[in-house]
C-alpha cells in the first residue's frame, strides 16, 4: 500500500511542478519585429449576464476572413467553452492603422434581426491577442426618454479602436474600445449597408513583460476590496473563536466532570446504575447500517478533500493567473483522476475494518458515488447546450478523451487503491467491547432529531464563509476576477476547523442523551454546510445576479448542485473523522467493563 500511495503522491507532485513552471505563468513568450503578424483569435460572444451561454464568434454575421483557422485547444480550454478562430483584424507588430476597412457588408433582414437580438441581450465579444484578453460590446440600446420598450433604438458599433502597448519586442497590453459616433441603426427589419472598420495605435510602455498579467489581478487587490476580504476574515475568526471557545470551555468542563464522576462511580458500589455516555459504551462502537455506503462516502470525501488541497497549492504558487484559459479545469480533471487511488484505499480499508465482505461492490459504489450524479448532470446540461448550439456543448472528441482518462487512469487507480486497502489488514480500534444486543434509545425531544441537528451544525461553518462566497460566485458565475487565494485558503481552514468542532460537540450531546447511533449523524451534520451553500445559490441567483433563461438557469443550479454535493461529501468526511477521533478518546479515558 505504501508503495502505491508514494507513487500517487509522486505523480501529483510532478503535476504541480509542471503546472507551476515559469513558462506557463507569463502567457505567450513570443518576440516580434516590426511588421510581424501577431496572433489574434476571436473566441466567443454571448449575453453579458449569462456567463455559461456563449456562442462561436462567427455565429453572428461578422466579417469573416478568407481562411478561418481554428486554434487547437487544450482539454481545459474546451471545458471552459473556448473556441478560438482566426479574427478578421490584422494587428501587425508596430504597424499603426487608421480607419482600415475590414469589409463592406449588406446585412439582410434576418442578419439585422440577429444583431438586434444580440444587442438587446447585452452581447459581448471576447478575443485574444498574443494571449491577452480583449472584451467589448456589440452595440447599445438607446432608452433615454422612452418608457415603452417598443420605442427603444438599437445601434450596432461598426468601428473598433485597438490601443496596443509594447516594450521592445514584446506585446505588453491591449485595449479595445468602440467608437460611440460610428453607429448603425438596426432598429427596423430592413437591409442595411455597413462598413466594418478598425484602427490600431501602438504606444511604448516601460512595463516589464513578466508583469503584463498583473493588470487583470489588480481589480481584486484594490484597497477597498482587500478591506472587505480582511473584514470577512476577522469577522469569521472572531465569531469562530468566541463560539468554539465557548463550546470548548463547556465541553472540557463537562467532560472533566464526567471523568471524575465515572472514576468515583467505579470506586463505589458495583451495582450502581450507569448514566450518560458511559451507559452506552457497549453500543457506541456498534457498526452502522449501510456500512458499504458509509465507506464509499468517506472514500469519495477523502479524495475530494485531497483534490481541494492540491488545487489550493497550485493556486498559491501562481498557476491560476487571470485568463490562463482552462488551467483550473485541466487541473481538476487530472488531479481527480490521479487521486482516485486514495478514494479506493480509504473506502476499502474502512469497509474491511467494519467486517464488510463484498469489497468489489464497495469499490464500484465508491467510484460512482460522486462521478455518477456528475455524469447524469453533465449529460442533461450538455444536451441543453447542444440544443442552444452553445460553446458549452463538448465536442465528441473531448468526451472520448474524458472517458479514456476515466477508463485508463481513474478506474485502474481506484482498483489498485482498493486492493491495497483490502490487503492492509487494519483492524477497527474500538476501546470498548460491543454487546450482542443493542440498547434501546430513550425518547428524545424533536430538536435532537437528525434534521434540526443538521441545521445547527451547518449554520456555524456557513456563517464563517458566506461573505467570501459572494466573491467566488461573482468570479465563477460572472466576470469578476478573483486572485486572493491566500485569503480563500484561510477561509477554507476556518471552515474545516469549525466543521470538525461543531460535529464533535453535537456528537457529545447525542451520546450524553444515550443515543448511540452517532455514525451517520456525524457525517450528515458535518456535510450539512453543503446544503446551506446550495441555499445561498438560490439567494445569489434571484437577489445578486441578472442571470436568466433556461440554459443559464439549468447550468447554474445543475453544476452548483454537483459542487455542493462534493462539499457535502468532503465536509461530512471531516466531521465524521473528527467525531470518531473524539469518541475513541473519551471511551479510552474511562474503564469499560
UniProtKB/TrEMBL annotation:
Belongs to the major facilitator superfamily. Phosphate:H(+) symporter (TC 2.A.1.9) family. This is Transmembrane 9 superfamily member. It comes from Anisodus tanguticus. The keyword Transferase does not apply. It comes from the Eukaryota. InterPro entries: EMP70, MFS_trans_sf. It is a multi-pass membrane protein. One of its GO terms (biological process) is protein localization to membrane.
